[in-house]
Amino acid sequence: MKEINMNETDIKKLAERALSAREKAYAPYSMFRVGAALLAKSGNIYEGCNIENAAYTPTNCAERTAFFKAVSEGECEFTAIAVAGGAQSAAVKDFCPPCGVCRQVMMEFCNPQEFQIILAQSRENYRIFTLEELLPMGFGPDHIA
Ligand code: THU
User: Helix or strand or coil: residue 114?
Assistant: First the structure.
């Protein structure tokens, strides 16, 4: 786990937004609801939830929903993302790490040594990792430049 370089109020606010985004999850198949809140360098926050599909594979994770919303609005630089996920029937009780596909999408837009991934169980209870910690030696835009 890396040293936190956002202030505690910002972290808690982002965690809260991820928990609130989770309420919008469309997850009738897995019943696993995930919310994400993505902080752009501009200061704007983009929320996302998982959106499942009867054909299963078109399912989109909460993190990617947040990224795609942001990028489609013209944001391409990001500071941090908070993620909160857990079974539908319960409050969030575990840390929900981003899947590999979402980590790769983060790699496209974020500096792996700086981008902070906040895994939130609640406003008070969270763990923070850099993208590099969760995706070591990630393949990114620099590799094909
Ligand atoms: N899910 C996310 O939204 N984010 C993750 O990082 C892990 C998985 C969603 C996808 C699917 O709708 C459900 O959680 C169960 O895998």
Answer: coil
